[in-house]
């Protein structure tokens, strides 16, 4: 079963869609829409990180005993992406289209590499190791969405 992989990959795609909408608004210099859409994108990213950091990663680490492996790498990458998200907000504040789009380009490459590692390695490992609890874990992650 690939319950975790399917759920989390779908959430990656949701974030990707919001990313594209925000980038499109900045390309059009529609700063009001850009602010709203960037906010929605950042909220979606934080929500995704929170599901992983509070639910998925701790359960994976507890079950496998692996704490200095893939989850540690993902946590470090989350922090790096959070820094890029802050740079986006700064570029929005100054309406600096060049800085915003350059940061988005960096973030896009980072997200693609990060998502590939999760989708091709961590999520399948999670489904394998947590398989009997996968539905419960996804339900717990969905509860975060309701907060």
Task: Note down, in words, how this protein is organized.
Helix 1 runs antiparallel to helix 4. The model has no long low-confidence stretch (mean pLDDT 94). Helix content is 88%, strand content 0%. The longest helix has 34 residues. With 147 residues, the chain is mainly α. The protein has a single domain, classed as nmb1532 protein domain like (Four Helix Bundle (Hemerythrin (Met), subunit A), Up-down Bundle), CATH 1.20.120.
Sequence-ordered SSE layout with sheet pairings:
Layout: H1 3-27, H2 31-64, H3 70-93, H4 97-130, H5 134-146
Helix pairs in contact: 1-2, 1-4, 2-3, 2-5, 3-4
Number of helices: 5
- What is the chain-wise order of helices and strands? HHHHH
CATH topology: Four Helix Bundle (Hemerythrin (Met), subunit A)
Tally the beta strands: 0
Gross morphology is elongated
> How much strand content do the residues show?
under 5%
Tell me the span between the first and last alpha carbons.
27 Å
**Helix fraction by DSSP (H/I, runs of at least 4):** over 70%
Characterize the biggest β-sheet: none
Estimated structural class: mainly alpha
